[in-house]
Amino acid sequence: MVNGEVHTLAVDPRATLLDTLRDRLGLTGAKKGCAHGSCGACTILVDGRRAVSCLMLAAACDGREITTIEGLATNGALHPVQQAFVDQDAFQCGYCTPGQIMSVAGLLAEGRARDDAAVRDELSGNICRCGAYPNILAAVRQVSGIEPTPAEIGADARLRDAAGGA
């Protein structure tokens, strides 16, 4: 089951879920970044939990529910995490954005967005080369209701200044 639709595929037992999603199903939202599970660009949800699809074998996903960035929105309306990323300008080049969004959606569903420190820890496997981290954290705050402490507000400002952004 991928994005609510049943797919029956004969797959090479060595095929990764990422390659199967991209090459066989045309779902190119999950990106191939490192192909080693280190960057998070290929993050999807498997049975509602975050997973890096470059390390999963497609054959091992038989009977599991897969959600990709393409399946996150419902009835043409952006998912709240997607909307928060737009509202908070939480992307620059956009390559990591689908994985970041899926990881945030997963951590929220898992109830792991307790505070800024927990969010930073939970998202540490998703790398943004552009340095949009303060805005990503702002997007998480928007959908989770986490309030930053004064120290965190100062840290966010220093990160934005160091990155040369607004």
Automatic annotation (TrEMBL):
MF (Gene Ontology): 2 iron, 2 sulfur cluster binding; metal ion binding; oxidoreductase activity, acting on the aldehyde or oxo group of donors
SUPFAM superfamilies: 2Fe-2S ferredoxin-like, CO dehydrogenase ISP C-domain like
Membrane-spanning segments: none
Superkingdom, natural source: Bacteria
Ranges where the 2Fe-2S ferredoxin-type domain occurs: 1-72
Pfam families given in the database record: Fer2, Fer2_2
Keyword terms: 2Fe-2S, Iron, Iron-sulfur, Metal-binding, Oxidoreductase
InterPro entries found in the cross-reference section: 2Fe-2S-bd, 2Fe-2S-bd_dom_sf, 2Fe-2S_ferredoxin-like_sf, 2Fe-2S_ferredoxin-type, 2Fe2S_fd_BS, Aldehyde_Oxdr_Iron-Sulfur, Beta-grasp_dom_sf
Gene3D superfamilies: 3.10.20.30, [2Fe-2S]-binding domain
Identification of the protein by name: 2Fe-2S ferredoxin-type domain-containing protein
